[in-house]
């Protein structure tokens, strides 16, 4: 009687979910008569009891060639682990208005308001999963899903009976970390003064007046200012709206993680993580927008504009050839800093190379000379200081990310005139405008800046 153990051995995967049949050298050139019952007995002896592949069994009975091995002889039933719990929000959390043909320029912030008693979200429990079976016939238990960790925060009530969250007040929903909050709006009925002081609020701020020079306004939500911003600081976790505009005097600063909308910008610094809307003109300012810039009724004169996607403006530059820079794909301020750091890095590398060369020359001399030993110590100290400065520069370079978009897809649309001494850059590709162009589109085509007639 043939002993299959003399010709075959079985290897089971670590998770016992598959078994492979290997042949020994004695199997080669042997004409063995193997039936299914002997294979089944061999498998039983090796504790292969589940998921046996009949096609593989038939292949062995018919005389599998050596090249066919190893053969998968059995496969377990995979375990299906449970899915984690989920949360479904019952309202629209989007803060952008849909831009239809009836869209109003001033409709830029849609605050996701909720009313008292409104359902905010529903939790769904995790699933337990489905058991599996390994090739030995043992049950494999699934790993259950994890419950979602979301809790009721400020002004929010959780009802266990239907696993839902409800608003306890009228206000604005805000999801921060593991908590759902509803924040009421903080409203100031006048221009900021020493009576109100600086503002720092977790929700939305509305100011019916101005933000004068020196004042700071900070909100985790949106900021609406029905007045003007002077040389103050306004930062928002959402959008910023300024009905009049900004007269920044070279130091006024507005920053938002979403859109920024103003009547005008004059000598200001404005950074928008999304889009920048300016109803009239941008004058001698430093502006950054990772999305689009719309200045369709006014001009962009002087200063720099760093943009991620597109610019639409009435006029660029001025008849007096005021230097105006429009840069796509990178933040010019960060890019200039990056260039400075790279130049400094190269200087330090050159200095370090020279110091090491000096050190090797010093060690070739008689080190018993006291003056020489002092020179060696000075050289080592200089090397250490230079290496430390180089590490600081390299760390700073790692933290700088000047890229804010793809210059390949960016474009500029000018609906009136673009004037001489305007510099257009798509990342490293630059073009200086030397003559007036009217009603044009400018973009990067095959790494060349193209100026084309604009057709609506």
Task: Describe the protein's architecture and organization.
The protein is an alpha/beta fold and 456 residues long. The protein contains four helices and 38 strands. Among the domains are: 4-75, no CATH class; 86-181, no CATH class; 337-389. The strands form six sheets. The protein has a 23-stranded mixed sheet that branches. It has a four-stranded antiparallel sheet with strand order 5-7-13-12, with no helix packed on it. A four-stranded mixed sheet has the order 6-14-15-11, with no helix packed on it. α3 (332-363) runs antiparallel to α4 (370-399). The chain is extended, with a radius of gyration of 35 Å. Residues 104-109 have low confidence and may be disordered.
What is the element layout, followed by pairings?
Elements: E1 8-12, E2 18-23, H1 36-45, H2 54-61, E3 71-75, E4 80-81, E5 86-89, E6 113-114, E7 119-124, E8 129-130, E9 132-133, E10 139-140, E11 151-152, E12 156-159, E13 164-167, E14 171-176, E15 179-183, E16 186-188, E17 199-201, E18 205-207, E19 216-219, E20 223-225, E21 228-229, E22 233-236, E23 240-242, E24 245-247, E25 253-256, E26 260-262, E27 265-266, E28 269-272, E29 276-278, E30 282-289, E31 292-307, E32 310-316, E33 324-328, H3 332-363, H4 370-399, E34 411-418, E35 422-426, E36 429-433, E37 437-445, E38 448-453
Parallel strand pairs: 11-15, 16-18, 17-19, 18-20, 19-22, 20-23, 21-24, 22-25, 23-26, 24-27, 25-28, 26-29, 27-30, 28-30, 29-31, 30-31, 31-32, 31-33, 32-34, 33-35
Antiparallel strand pairs: 1-2, 2-3, 4-8, 5-7, 6-14, 7-13, 9-10, 12-13, 14-15, 34-37, 35-36, 37-38
Helix pairs in contact: 3-4
């Amino acid at each position: 009687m043939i002993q299959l153990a003399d010709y075959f051995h079985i290897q089971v995967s670590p998770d016992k979910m598959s078994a492979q049949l290997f042949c020994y050298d004695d199997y080669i050139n042997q004409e063995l008569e193997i039936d299914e019952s002997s294979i089944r007995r061999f498998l039983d002896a090796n504790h292969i009891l589940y998921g046996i592949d009949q096609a593989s069994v038939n292949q062995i009975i018919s005389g599998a060639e050596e090249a066919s091995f190893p053969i998968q002889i059995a496969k377990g039933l995979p375990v299906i682990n449970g899915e984690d719990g989920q949360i479904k929000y019952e309202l629209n959390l989007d803060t952008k208005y849909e831009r239809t043909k009836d869209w109003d320029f001033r409709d830029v912030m849609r605050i996701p308001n909720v009313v008292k008693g409104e359902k905010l979200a529903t939790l769904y429990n995790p699933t337990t999963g489905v058991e599996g079976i390994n090739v030995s016939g043992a049950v494999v238990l699934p790993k259950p899903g994890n419950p979602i960790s979301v809790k009721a925060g400020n002004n929010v009530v959780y009802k266990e009976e239907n696993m839902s969250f409800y608003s306890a007040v009228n206000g604005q929903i805000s999801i921060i970390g593991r908590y759902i909050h509803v924040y009421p709006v903080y409203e100031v009925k006048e221009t900021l003064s020493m009576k109100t002081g600086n503002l720092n609020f977790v929700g939305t701020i509305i100011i019916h007046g101005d933000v004068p020079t020196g004042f700071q306004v900070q909100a985790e939500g949106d900021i609406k200012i029905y007045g003007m911003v002077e040389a103050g600081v306004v930062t928002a976790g959402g959008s910023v709206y300024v009905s009049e505009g900004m007269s920044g005097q070279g130091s006024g600063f507005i920053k938002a993680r979403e859109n920024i909308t103003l009547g005008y910008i004059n000598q200001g610094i404005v950074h928008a993580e999304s889009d920048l809307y300016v109803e009239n003109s941008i004058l001698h300012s430093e502006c950054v927008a990772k999305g689009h810039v719309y200045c369709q009724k006014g001009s962009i004169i002087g200063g720099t504009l760093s943009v991620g996607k597109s610019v639409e403006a009435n006029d660029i530059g001025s008849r007096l050839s005021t230097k105006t820079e429009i840069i796509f794909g990178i933040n010019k301020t960060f890019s200039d800093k990056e260039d400075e750091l790279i130049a400094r890095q190269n200087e330090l590398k050159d200095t370090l190379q020279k110091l090491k060369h000096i050190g090797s020359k010093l060690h070739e001399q008689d080190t018993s000379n006291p003056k020489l030993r002092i020179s060696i110590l000075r050289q080592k100290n200089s090397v250490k200081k230079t290496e430390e400065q180089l590490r600081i520069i390299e760390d700073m370079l790692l933290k700088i990310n000047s890229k804010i978009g793809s210059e390949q897809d960016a474009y500029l649309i000018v609906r009136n005139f673009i004037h001489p001494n305007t510099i257009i850059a798509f990342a490293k590709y630059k073009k200086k405008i030397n003559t007036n162009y009217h009603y044009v589109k400018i973009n990067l085509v095959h790494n060349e800046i193209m100026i084309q007639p604009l057709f609506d």
